[in-house]
């Protein structure tokens, strides 16, 4: 019979087996990357339906306009109306609170203002549900018998706090990611707006053209520009469409663009020159942010370098020597 000799080991693990597993994971990752590259989808395809619905709604004239409030479209359903009536009966629903949540939803990309009532209801229900579950697991079932009294109370408090702040934290993270994506594409969008304005296109046609050109690279910005072009075409006051853009995007640069657009509409100042100046300022600002991140990079990379890169480097350098020494000791007689 042919005896199989054990392969080299490192820290008690078979090097050949571990290498085979890592090679399989690497091959699967390469196949997944190739599949993701081949099946690239248009990021604006999912947003076209919502934009078409907004266009149809504006055509039908289902718009609530007020001199003091921004234009909004509220699609009411029985469920949200009942929930709203229940919360108002409990004296926990205020108009200022609804408007604040609606603003956060707009910044996160959710334009259905009914969701504000659901978010407020979730902030009331989730702390109770998570608190009851934590009480059940910690005190009734005693799933963590080694925990002391302080740790149990702390875990219960964390679950209740997470239930109350969870929806708000989710909306904040979604809004910050969306704002960052819009900030990246804004200088390029302004350059295209300058080209469209110098070519003689109207403002709404220029916004629509920029949305089509930048929709694949910056889908969030393309979505906002396409919606602004639709509102410019159908709303009675063009200033209202620009104000809606500033309302939906929590970005000071967008507010500057909106102010420039409103001033050019009111006073007839040249649009291309003003947008060119804004584009140059935004590009300088983006370069300054990149330089700031580059300056912080050495300090940020210190801990990953010590914890992840240097140990791997030592294993690659000293691993073969350790395997050879281990095999030499294993082959000595009497050991």
What does this structure look like?
The protein has 335 residues and is an all-alpha fold. It has helices at residues 15-38, 45-60, 78-89, 95-108, 115-140, 149-198, 203-214, 219-234, 238-248, 252-267, 271-331, and strands at 9-10, 13-14. α7 (203-214) packs antiparallel against α8 (219-234), α8 runs antiparallel to α9 and α9 runs antiparallel to α10. It starts with 8 loop residues before the first strand and ends with a helix.
Give the secondary structure arrangement, pairings included:
Elements lengths: L8 E2 L2 E2 H24 L6 H16 L17 H12 L5 H14 L6 H26 L8 H50 L4 H12 L4 H16 L3 H11 L3 H16 L3 H61 L4
Antiparallel strand pairs: 1-2
Helix pairs in contact: 2-8, 3-5, 4-5, 4-6, 5-6, 6-7, 6-11, 7-8, 8-9, 9-10, 10-11
């Amino acid at each position: 019979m042919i005896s199989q000799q054990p392969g080299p080991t490192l820290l008690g693990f078979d090097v050949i087996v571990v290498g085979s597993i890592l090679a399989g994971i690497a091959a699967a990752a390469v196949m997944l990357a190739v599949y993701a590259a081949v099946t690239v989808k248009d990021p604006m395809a999912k947003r076209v339906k919502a934009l078409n619905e907004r266009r149809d709604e504006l055509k039908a004239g289902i718009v609530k306009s007020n001199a003091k409030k921004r234009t909004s479209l509220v699609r009411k359903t029985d469920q949200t109306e009942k929930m709203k009536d229940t919360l108002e009966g409990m004296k926990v629903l205020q108009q200022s609170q609804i408007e604040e949540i609606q603003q956060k939803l707009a910044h996160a990309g959710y334009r259905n203002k009914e969701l504000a009532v659901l978010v407020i209801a979730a902030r009331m229900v989730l702390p109770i549900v998570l608190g009851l579950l934590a009480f059940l697991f910690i005190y009734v079932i005693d799933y963590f018998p080694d925990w002391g009294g302080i740790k149990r109370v702390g875990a219960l408090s964390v679950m209740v706090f997470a239930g109350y702040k969870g929806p708000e934290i989710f909306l904040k993270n979604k809004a910050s990611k969306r704002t960052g994506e819009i900030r990246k594409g804004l200088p390029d969008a302004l350059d295209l707006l300058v080209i469209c304005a110098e070519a003689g296109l109207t403002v709404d046609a220029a916004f629509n053209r920029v949305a089509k050109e930048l929709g694949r690279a910056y889908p969030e910005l393309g979505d906002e520009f396409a919606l602004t072009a639709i509102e410019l075409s159908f709303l009675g006051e063009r200033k209202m469409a620009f104000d809606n853009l500033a309302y939906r995007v929590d970005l000071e640069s967008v507010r500057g663009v909106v102010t420039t657009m409103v001033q050019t509409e009111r006073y007839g100042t040249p649009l291309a020159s003003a947008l060119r100046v804004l584009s140059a300022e935004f590009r300088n600002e983006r370069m300054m942010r990149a330089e700031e991140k580059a300056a912080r990079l050495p300090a940020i990379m210190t801990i990953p370098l010590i914890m992840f890169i240097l140990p791997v480097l030592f294993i690659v350098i000293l691993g073969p020597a350790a395997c050879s020494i281990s095999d030499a000791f294993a082959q000595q007689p009497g050991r």
